[in-house]
């Protein structure tokens, strides 16, 4: 009888250890560098939209997602580029208020340096590090050379405009 009880305890212990590990692994996802998934897309339009992201005078191009938030943002900045003041948060991102809300389709994602997301429907977040949270992905910087240096320390001024050169 003691051997049988010992075996039960071992099995219970194994479940207590392995079950949380299995749950953790099931929640992992591979990096989504493009963000172009069926869940993000509103239409079948595959043409890439581009945006100019000017950070304190240094210009970067970003490839935009195909979702309602991006379409609304592009409609706004086509006629008038917007200037944002972003502050550092957590040592891995810059965040600032848009001053208006965009439609959101939040989902849990892991962000990487160069990702641009919408947070709480009215804040832009630009990453120079990584984070996992519920965001609406807006786009990604095409060429990260100089990205982290441009964002630098402290507050930055960012101007968003449509890239008409495509």
Write up what this structure looks like.
The protein is of the alpha+beta class. It has a domain at 49-162: Cyclophilin. The chain is built from 3 helices and 9 strands. An 8-stranded antiparallel β-barrel has the order 1-2-8-6-7-4-3-9. Strand 6 and strand 7 (123-127) form a beta hairpin. It is elongated, with a radius of gyration of 21 Å. Residues 22-44 have low confidence and may be disordered.
Describe the structure in brief.
The chain is α+β, with helices and mostly antiparallel strands and 166 residues long.
Unreliable stretches (pLDDT < 50, length at least 5) are 22-44
Largest sheet: 8 strands, antiparallel, barrel
* Biggest sheet: strand arrangement: 1-2-8-6-7-4-3-9
* Quaternary form: single chain
Helix segment tally: 3
Main features:
166 residues; alpha+beta; Cyclophilin; 3 helices; 9 strands; 36% strand
């Amino acid at each position: 009888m003691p051997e049988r009880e010992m075996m039960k305890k071992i099995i219970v212990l194994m479940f207590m250890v392995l079950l949380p590990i299995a749950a953790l692994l099931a929640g992992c996802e591979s990096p989504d560098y493009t963000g172009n998934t069926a869940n993000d897309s509103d239409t079948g339009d595959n043409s890439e939209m581009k945006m100019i992201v000017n950070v304190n005078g240094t210009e970067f191009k970003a490839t935009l997602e195909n979702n309602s938030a991006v379409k609304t943002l592009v409609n706004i900045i086509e006629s008038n580029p917007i200037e944002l003041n972003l502050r550092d948060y957590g040592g891995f991102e810059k965040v600032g208020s848009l001053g208006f809300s965009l439609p959101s389709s939040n989902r849990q994602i892991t962000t990487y340096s160069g990702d641009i997301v919408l947070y709480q429907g009215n804040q832009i977040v630009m990453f120079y590090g990584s984070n996992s949270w519920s965001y609406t992905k807006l786009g990604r910087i095409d060429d990260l050379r100089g990205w982290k240096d441009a964002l630098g320390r402290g507050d930055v001024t960012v101007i968003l405009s449509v890239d008409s050169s495509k």
